[in-house]
Design brief:
Elements (H helix, E strand, L loop, with lengths): L7 E10 L6 H19 L3 E9 L3 H9 L4 H18 L6 E4 L3 H17 L2 E11 L4 E2 L12 E2 L6 E12 L5 H10 L4 E2 L1 H12 L5 E2 L1 E2 L6 E3 L2 E6 L1 H6 L1 H4 L7 H7 L4 E5 L3 H15 L6 E5 L2 E3 L2 E2 L10 H8 L1 H11 L6 E3 L1 H31 L11 H22 L3 H22 L1 H4 L6 H22 L4 H10 L37 H14 L10 H5 L3 E11 L7 E6 L4 E6 L7 H4 L3 E5 L5 E3 L2 E3 L2 E2 L2 E3 L2 E3 L15
Parallel strand pairs: 1-2, 1-13, 2-3, 8-14, 13-14, 15-17
Antiparallel strand pairs: 4-5, 4-7, 6-7, 7-9, 10-12, 11-12, 15-16, 18-19, 18-21, 19-20, 21-24, 22-23, 25-26
Helix pairs in contact: 2-3, 5-6, 11-12, 12-13, 13-15, 13-17, 14-15, 14-17, 15-17, 17-18
The structure holds one RNA strand of 74 nucleotides.
RNA sequence: GGCGGUGUAGCUCAGUCGGUUAGAGCAUACGGCUCAUAUCCGUAGUGUCGGGGGUUCAAAUCCCUCCACCGCCA
């Protein structure tokens, strides 16, 4: 009974399309969800946090084909990228759903069938403007040109009317029920301004929705009519139920459904606030409690887009600042719902000022003083005076306000409140000047009280920032000598006095080093310069190990006839001799290469170049298009492993 | 074109069931401290509260109108 009555909380992000490179927008949504989920856990909820990937559709099919891959192979690669980004960002999701998983596909088919049996899904004919070169129907809102054609926004080609047999969902019959639902649940969509948009959209009338295609191979087939595959939204939205067990783990599903929060970007509001509830009503599944739409991040005041080439890659920031600074910035800068502007100047400014100067420096000064004046251990302290008491009492109100803000997903305000307290502690130190008391031995107990008070406040601060900055919070926690994990304590149990005397305080390293804009920009532009194609994703050591890199000795080298760049090399890789073709003839003559030792990759799939099979590849630096080979200067036998 | 929103200090914004000299952070200037990451603390400002008109003893706040920008829809 006790176990069953535990408060539960289910939060989702959208599933991200695998025909996309992970960028700051994905990171933003997922970071919000992660912070809310961490907070809810502290608040005593049993939490399920779901994210994942949307992997079907023509675009995936097409990009995979362009790269000589099967769709699932492309999906696997991109899924790896998402997962490694989530890891780098400290995202603690409970499950990662992929729409290509059998559990999902089956669930979607079950729901589809159910609606079909009910008559909410029926077969009809879809008529639309179809762009032949993009193999895609144009969206309805594209204006009609002269001559009864529309212009495809992607390729600018003319698109004529095409019709196709497909299944429709009877969205039109849900207008009234939806409007009733919105009226009874005005907080279903947040922020409220978005709710207005939804209502006015539904008021204007709903058309039935085409939910299958016969032209898309890469999708979930309709079970009893496999020529049709289930189209994007009907497939994707259902991840929210299949991801927690619908159709495969009824117990889990019952435990967490309905979802408390579907966190989404404002661009997909209609699908979540109109179509999704309608699908669920039809399937007789309870509706989610809220759909929270957040804003977009602009880059230097302009919208980020692939075509503009100004899409912000989180890795460049992560490398310099770590996850917590990015998490903090994205959540502190704007309330969920409004758009924000990301500029490197703004980012550095806030991170230096709030994290390095305010919090980081506070941690540093308190811990250093405890180290210097007490050898890291405060044992005995004076009674509280009025000023000390004020700092302790302020904790109580801060705790309450911070809790309330987190509860309302006003994370920016929660942080703002925490920072007011940080300032109070700084002020407390300035007023009490412990460094002066330290010179007078008779003041030791008083000095102890002051530093105890500051450290106790700091412990609370670390706890409060944990949902947003888990790594740094834990660092401070450990510095303070806490032995239990920070998230083992419930929010309601956090007390000022939970910082106990006698704990062994460690010598700190600055947790948020200041970064100069100059240095950041320099590094950023260097990265751009070197990796023009795009920043590479992080790989694991296991992935790295799959490369068989060896020392090779060049035995023979000759020019490839009819080319001026290629050399044919014969190399010794210890166990065997290999033939390799390398584009280095303009930089190196065959004569100077013979006898040299260098690094080659030996398990690269052989390729035929100019009719010659190349059984591996030599590694070389690239400087303005010219190869620069790193030769071994030490004597090392051919075949030695390089790592 | 329809509906909704926004316009307040150099910047980002808070404040509107009408009511004392309109606020915060950042930036700027000056002062203090030296435990601390050149960090921290204090002081000082500056605003025709988008324009105009109206209601009222009293308007950033309510009403009308105009302008600018944004969102959703067509």
């Amino acid at each position: 009974m006790e176990e069953n009555s535990k408060k539960r909380f289910y939060i989702t992000t959208p599933i991200y399309y695998v025909n996309d490179v992970p960028h700051i927008g994905h990171a933003y949504t997922t970071i919000i969800a992660d912070s809310i989920s961490r907070f809810k856990k502290l608040a005593g909820y049993e939490v399920f946090f779901l994210t994942g990937t949307d992997e079907h559709g023509q675009k995936v099919e097409k990009s995979a084909a362009e790269r000589g891959l099967k769709p699932i192979e492309l999906a696997d690669i991109v899924v790896g990228r998402f997962k490694s980004l989530w890891k780098a960002l400290n995202i603690n999701n409970d499950y990662f759903i992929r729409t290509t998983q059998p559990i999902h596909e089956k669930g979607v088919q079950i729901i589809f069938q159910k609606l079909k049996d009910k008559g909410d899904i029926y077969k009809g004919v879809y008529k639309g403007y179809y762009c032949v070169s993009c193999e895609n129907y144009l969206s309805e809102d594209i204006p009609l040109e002269e001559g009864g054609v529309k212009i495809c926004p992607d390729c600018k080609e003319k698109a004529g009317v095409v019709s196709e047999e497909c299944y429709f969902f009877k969205l039109s019959s849900y207008q009234k029920i939806l409007l009733d639902f919105y009226e009874k649940n005005p907080a279903f969509v947040r922020p409220p301004s978005r709710m207005n948009e939804v209502v006015s959209f539904v008021r204007h009338g709903l058309k039935d929705l085409s939910i299958t295609r016969t032209t898309v191979e890469w999708g979930i087939p309709v079970a009893d009519d496999p020529g049709h595959s289930i189209y994007v939204w009907f497939d994707a939205l259902n991840n929210y139920v299949t991801g927690i067990g619908y159709g495969w783990n009824q117990e889990l599903f019952k435990k967490f459904w309905p979802a408390d929060v579907h966190l989404i970007g404002k661009d997909i509001l209609r699908f979540h606030a109109v179509f999704w509830p309608a699908f669920l009503m039809a399937a007789e599944i309870p509706l989610p409690r809220t759909v929270v739409g957040h804003g977009w991040w602009l880059k230097d005041e302009t919208k980020m887009s692939k075509s503009r080439g100004n899409v912000l890659d989180p890795h460049s920031i992560l490398n310099t600042f770590g996850a917590d600074s990015l998490r903090y910035f994205l959540l502190r800068e704007i309330p969920i719902g409004l758009d924000g502007n990301f500029s490197h100047e703004g980012f550095i400014h806030r991170v230096n000022s709030d994290l390095a100067n305010d919090l980081g420096n506070l941690v540093q000064r308190i811990l250093t003083m405890i180290g210097n004046y007490f050898g890291g251990r405060i044992e005995e302290i004076d009674k509280e005076n009025e000023r000390d008491k004020r700092l302790r009492l302020e904790f109580n109100s801060v705790k309450e306000i911070v809790f309330r803000h987190y509860e309302n997903y006003a994370i920016n305000k929660a942080l703002e409140e925490i920072w007011i307290y940080i300032n109070s502690v700084n002020k407390y130190l300035a007023e009490n000047e412990p460094w002066k008391l330290a010179k007078d031995k008779s003041q030791k107990m008083r000095l102890g009280r002051i530093l105890y008070q500051a450290a106790a406040a700091l412990r609370a601060i670390a706890y409060f920032v944990f949902p947003v900055m888990p790594e740094s919070a834990e660092k401070i926690w450990n510095y303070l000598g806490e032995e239990n994990p920070i998230n083992r304590e419930f929010f309601s149990d956090v007390q000022f006095e939970n910082f106990v005397l006698g704990q062994h305080i460690k010598v700190p390293e600055p947790i948020f080093p200041r970064v100069k804009l100059k240095d950041f920009i320099k590094e950023k532009t260097q990265n751009v310069h070197h990796g023009k194609e795009e920043k590479m994703e992080t790989i694991t050591f296991d992935e790295f190990k799959r490369l068989d890199l060896r020392v090779a000795e060049i035995l023979k080298a000759e020019r490839v006839e009819g080319t001026d760049k290629l050399l044919k090399l014969e190399v010794d890789i210890g166990t065997e001799r290999r033939q390799m073709v390398a584009g280095i003839a303009q930089e190196y003559s065959p004569e100077e290469l013979v006898g040299k030792k260098l690094t080659v990759i030996t398990n690269l799939k052989p390729a035929v170049i100019r009719g010659i099979e190349s059984q591996g590849m030599i590694l070389a630096g690239e400087l303005e298009g010219k190869a620069v080979i790193p030769f071994f200067t030490e004597d090392i036998p051919a075949g030695s492993k390089v790592r």
